[in-house]
Write a structure and sequence with these properties.
mainly alpha, 164 residues, flat, single chain, 66% helix, 5 helices
Protein backbone atom coordinates (compact mmCIF):
# COMPACT_ATOMS: atom_id res chain seq x y z
CA UNK A 1 0.00 0.00 0.00
CA UNK A 2 1.30 3.42 -0.95
CA UNK A 3 0.91 5.46 2.24
CA UNK A 4 1.00 8.87 0.53
CA UNK A 5 -1.71 7.85 -1.90
CA UNK A 6 -3.76 6.43 0.98
CA UNK A 7 -3.35 9.75 2.79
CA UNK A 8 -4.84 11.57 -0.20
CA UNK A 9 -7.84 9.23 -0.09
CA UNK A 10 -8.19 9.59 3.68
CA UNK A 11 -8.05 13.37 3.37
CA UNK A 12 -10.75 13.27 0.71
CA UNK A 13 -12.88 11.06 2.96
CA UNK A 14 -12.38 13.46 5.88
CA UNK A 15 -13.32 16.46 3.75
CA UNK A 16 -16.42 14.67 2.50
CA UNK A 17 -17.40 13.76 6.06
CA UNK A 18 -17.00 17.38 7.17
CA UNK A 19 -19.17 18.65 4.32
CA UNK A 20 -21.85 16.03 5.03
CA UNK A 21 -21.75 16.95 8.74
CA UNK A 22 -22.17 20.60 7.76
CA UNK A 23 -25.05 19.73 5.44
CA UNK A 24 -26.93 18.21 8.33
CA UNK A 25 -26.85 21.62 10.04
CA UNK A 26 -28.50 23.43 7.10
CA UNK A 27 -32.29 23.64 7.14
CA UNK A 28 -33.92 21.62 4.38
CA UNK A 29 -36.94 23.77 3.50
CA UNK A 30 -37.69 23.22 -0.17
CA UNK A 31 -36.93 26.24 -2.26
CA UNK A 32 -37.03 26.91 -5.97
CA UNK A 33 -37.84 23.74 -7.89
CA UNK A 34 -38.32 21.71 -4.71
CA UNK A 35 -34.63 21.81 -3.87
CA UNK A 36 -33.58 23.14 -0.47
CA UNK A 37 -30.37 24.96 0.46
CA UNK A 38 -28.80 21.77 1.80
CA UNK A 39 -29.06 19.88 -1.50
CA UNK A 40 -25.73 20.93 -3.04
CA UNK A 41 -23.67 20.37 0.14
CA UNK A 42 -25.13 16.87 0.36
CA UNK A 43 -24.27 16.14 -3.28
CA UNK A 44 -20.71 17.46 -2.92
CA UNK A 45 -20.15 15.69 0.41
CA UNK A 46 -21.40 12.34 -0.85
CA UNK A 47 -19.39 12.66 -4.06
CA UNK A 48 -16.24 13.38 -2.03
CA UNK A 49 -16.94 10.36 0.19
CA UNK A 50 -17.29 8.15 -2.89
CA UNK A 51 -14.11 9.56 -4.46
CA UNK A 52 -12.23 9.18 -1.17
CA UNK A 53 -13.28 5.54 -0.87
CA UNK A 54 -12.16 4.87 -4.44
CA UNK A 55 -8.82 6.60 -3.79
CA UNK A 56 -8.20 4.53 -0.66
CA UNK A 57 -9.11 1.36 -2.57
CA UNK A 58 -6.70 2.31 -5.37
CA UNK A 59 -3.94 3.03 -2.85
CA UNK A 60 -4.52 -0.38 -1.24
CA UNK A 61 -4.11 -2.02 -4.64
CA UNK A 62 -0.67 -0.50 -5.18
CA UNK A 63 -1.20 3.19 -5.65
CA UNK A 64 -1.87 5.28 -8.68
CA UNK A 65 0.01 3.03 -11.08
CA UNK A 66 -1.04 4.68 -14.32
CA UNK A 67 -0.25 8.21 -13.13
CA UNK A 68 2.09 10.12 -15.43
CA UNK A 69 5.09 12.00 -14.16
CA UNK A 70 4.20 15.61 -13.39
CA UNK A 71 5.16 18.20 -15.95
CA UNK A 72 6.28 21.74 -15.32
CA UNK A 73 8.78 23.37 -13.04
CA UNK A 74 10.07 21.93 -9.79
CA UNK A 75 8.68 24.86 -7.80
CA UNK A 76 5.81 27.29 -8.14
CA UNK A 77 5.97 30.45 -10.22
CA UNK A 78 5.60 33.18 -7.59
CA UNK A 79 5.05 36.16 -9.92
CA UNK A 80 2.18 34.30 -11.58
CA UNK A 81 0.75 33.40 -8.18
CA UNK A 82 0.87 37.06 -7.18
CA UNK A 83 -0.92 38.18 -10.36
CA UNK A 84 -3.73 35.65 -9.86
CA UNK A 85 -3.99 36.48 -6.15
CA UNK A 86 -4.18 40.18 -6.98
CA UNK A 87 -7.03 39.46 -9.38
CA UNK A 88 -9.01 37.55 -6.77
CA UNK A 89 -8.38 40.15 -4.05
CA UNK A 90 -9.23 43.07 -6.35
CA UNK A 91 -12.49 41.40 -7.30
CA UNK A 92 -13.39 40.81 -3.67
CA UNK A 93 -12.60 44.42 -2.79
CA UNK A 94 -14.14 46.12 -5.80
CA UNK A 95 -17.19 44.06 -6.74
CA UNK A 96 -19.58 46.26 -4.74
CA UNK A 97 -17.93 49.46 -6.00
CA UNK A 98 -17.49 48.86 -9.72
CA UNK A 99 -20.01 46.04 -10.25
CA UNK A 100 -19.85 42.37 -11.09
CA UNK A 101 -18.98 42.61 -14.78
CA UNK A 102 -16.11 45.08 -14.42
CA UNK A 103 -14.64 43.38 -11.36
CA UNK A 104 -14.76 39.97 -13.06
CA UNK A 105 -13.15 41.49 -16.16
CA UNK A 106 -10.38 42.87 -13.94
CA UNK A 107 -9.93 39.48 -12.27
CA UNK A 108 -9.71 37.76 -15.65
CA UNK A 109 -7.19 40.32 -16.93
CA UNK A 110 -4.91 39.91 -13.89
CA UNK A 111 -5.22 36.12 -13.90
CA UNK A 112 -4.25 36.03 -17.58
CA UNK A 113 -1.17 38.11 -16.69
CA UNK A 114 -0.24 35.45 -14.14
CA UNK A 115 -0.74 32.52 -16.47
CA UNK A 116 1.13 34.21 -19.30
CA UNK A 117 4.04 35.11 -17.02
CA UNK A 118 4.24 31.48 -15.89
CA UNK A 119 4.58 30.47 -19.54
CA UNK A 120 7.14 33.20 -20.24
CA UNK A 121 4.74 35.07 -22.55
CA UNK A 122 4.76 38.54 -21.02
CA UNK A 123 2.99 40.87 -23.43
CA UNK A 124 2.79 44.19 -21.58
CA UNK A 125 1.27 46.23 -24.37
CA UNK A 126 -1.84 48.26 -23.52
CA UNK A 127 -3.71 46.48 -26.31
CA UNK A 128 -3.07 43.12 -24.63
CA UNK A 129 -4.31 44.41 -21.26
CA UNK A 130 -7.43 45.90 -22.86
CA UNK A 131 -8.13 42.76 -24.89
CA UNK A 132 -7.93 40.57 -21.77
CA UNK A 133 -10.19 42.97 -19.84
CA UNK A 134 -12.79 42.95 -22.61
CA UNK A 135 -12.69 39.16 -22.91
CA UNK A 136 -13.22 38.87 -19.15
CA UNK A 137 -16.15 41.28 -19.32
CA UNK A 138 -17.60 39.39 -22.28
CA UNK A 139 -17.53 36.20 -20.21
CA UNK A 140 -18.94 37.88 -17.08
CA UNK A 141 -21.78 39.80 -18.77
CA UNK A 142 -23.89 36.75 -19.74
CA UNK A 143 -23.33 35.28 -16.26
CA UNK A 144 -24.51 38.56 -14.70
CA UNK A 145 -27.51 38.66 -17.00
CA UNK A 146 -28.47 35.03 -16.34
CA UNK A 147 -28.25 35.42 -12.57
CA UNK A 148 -30.06 38.76 -12.55
CA UNK A 149 -32.69 38.23 -15.20
CA UNK A 150 -33.33 34.49 -15.35
CA UNK A 151 -32.64 33.36 -11.78
CA UNK A 152 -33.58 36.65 -10.06
CA UNK A 153 -30.41 36.54 -7.96
CA UNK A 154 -29.03 39.98 -7.31
CA UNK A 155 -25.37 40.56 -8.15
CA UNK A 156 -23.64 43.89 -7.56
CA UNK A 157 -24.11 46.20 -10.54
CA UNK A 158 -22.55 49.50 -11.50
CA UNK A 159 -25.78 51.02 -12.76
CA UNK A 160 -29.43 50.65 -11.79
CA UNK A 161 -30.30 49.35 -15.26
CA UNK A 162 -29.32 45.80 -14.35
CA UNK A 163 -27.05 45.39 -17.37
CA UNK A 164 -23.64 46.40 -16.01
Amino acid sequence: MNKLHAAVGAGTLALGALIVAGATQIRSDAGYGGVGPNFLPWVVGLALLACGALLVREAARGGFRLMEEPSGAESGHWPGFLWVSAGILCTAGLITRIGFVLSCGLCFMLAVRGFKSAQGLQDRSPVSWLRDLLIGMAIAAPVYWMFGKLLAISLPGLTATGWI
